[in-house]
Amino acid sequence: MKHVRRVGAIALTVAMLAMIGGAVSAAESDLVDINLATTRELESLPQVGPALAKRIVDFREIHGAFKSVDDLLKVQGIGEKTLAKLRDRVTVSRAKS
User: Fold this and answer.
1) Any idea what DSSP says for residue 30?
2) Domain boundaries in the chain?
3) What distance in Å separates the CA atoms of residue 68 and residue 52, rounded to the nearest whole number?
4) What SS3 class is residue 70?
5) What is the pLDDT of residues 32-83, one digit of tens each?
6) CATH fourth-level superfamily of 32-91
7) In this structure, is the dihedral angle defined by the CA atoms of residues 24, 94, 62 and 68, taken in order, positive or negative?
8) Between the CA atoms of 52, 55, 56 and 57, what dihedral angle is there, to the nearest 10 degrees?
9) Mapped to the 3 state alphabet, what secondary structure does 36-52 carry?
10) How far apart are CA 71 and CA 36, in angstroms?
11) 67 — phi, psi (to 5°)?
12) Would you say 49 and 43 are in contact if contact means Cβ atoms under 8 Å apart?
């Protein structure tokens, strides 16, 4: 009986860890990668309309990949307030340069 309980406890622990890992992966996948996003994907962000989305993509194409989310401050039309609204919604990949 102890063995059955132990196996059950281990199975429950593994299932819980898998759920937690899935939640983290889902949260990460909800982020918009500013180095890979299309203008349409960027427009899904708060405070980003078609013109600003185009400026982000244009900036990226001219200057290369963003190295950090803070680099968005270099894009005309993005200031501290806008960046604060975007910070938790965007990420920067290292894959593209």
Assistant:
1) T
2) 1-30, 32-91
3) 18
4) helix
5) 999 999 999 999 999 999 999 999 999 999 999 999 999 999 999 999 999 9
6) Photosystem II 12 kDa extrinsic protein (1.10.150.320)
7) positive
8) 120
9) CCCHHHHHCCCCCCHHH
10) 15
11) -90, -25
12) yes
